[in-house]
């Protein structure tokens, strides 16, 4: 018997991220926004969005716990 995979099996567990990190990660990595574009949309500086994204990536890779 062959089981069909669902998208749920491939989704990353974003629960380790802060709310701000999750928001930026989803927008840039999953929804296709550019960092500067998302910064303008949310009223944040590009540096802030970049830092949030960097920290989110580190956490997801297991390199940063808090």
Automatic annotation (TrEMBL):
GO terms for biological process: DNA-templated transcription initiation. GO terms for molecular function: DNA binding; sigma factor activity. Signal peptide: none annotated. Residues 14-60 form the RNA polymerase sigma factor 70 region 4 type domain. This is ECF subfamily RNA polymerase sigma-24 subunit. It comes from Halosimplex carlsbadense 2-9-1. The lineage of its organism: Archaea, Methanobacteriati, Methanobacteriota, Stenosarchaea group, Halobacteria.
């Amino acid at each position: 018997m062959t089981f069909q995979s669902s998208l749920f099996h491939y989704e990353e567990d974003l629960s380790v991220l802060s709310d701000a990190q999750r928001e930026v990660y989803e927008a840039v990595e999953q929804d296709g926004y550019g960092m500067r574009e998302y910064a303008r949309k949310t009223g944040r500086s590009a540096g802030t969005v970049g830092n949030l994204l960097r920290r989110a990536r580190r956490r997801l890779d297991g390199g940063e716990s808090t």
